[in-house]
Amino acid sequence: xxxxxxxxxxxxxxxxxxxxxxxxxxxxxxxxxxxxxxxxxxxxxxxxxxxxxxxxxxxxxxxxxxxxxxxxxxxxxxxxxxxxxxxxxxxxxxxxxxxxx
Length: 101
What we know:
By secondary structure, this protein is mainly alpha-helical. It has a domain at 16-70. Helix content is 61%, strand content 6%. The chain has helices at residues 15-18, 23-29, 32-44, 47-64, 69-78, 86-95; strands spanning 3-5, 83-85. The longest helix is centred in the middle third of the chain and has 18 residues, at 47-64.
């Protein structure tokens, strides 16, 4: 089973509110160059793929706006970042009523 980074303690605030799950919310969180890439990809996506494009870019926007990104990157490079199994992360998300797709 693969592992993914685990956060220490509870996140500050509701992470779902940092970047709204809308095209405008995602675009506002991206740099100008990435915003144009996002709009280009969304604009050329067939209707049945638009939701997947929005989900993918929402994840990118969440990563781009993570207030702890520098700390997490440094810990990963130092080899001190705690790890959690994918199964434990999915179980924790399900328990909180968050999407797991």
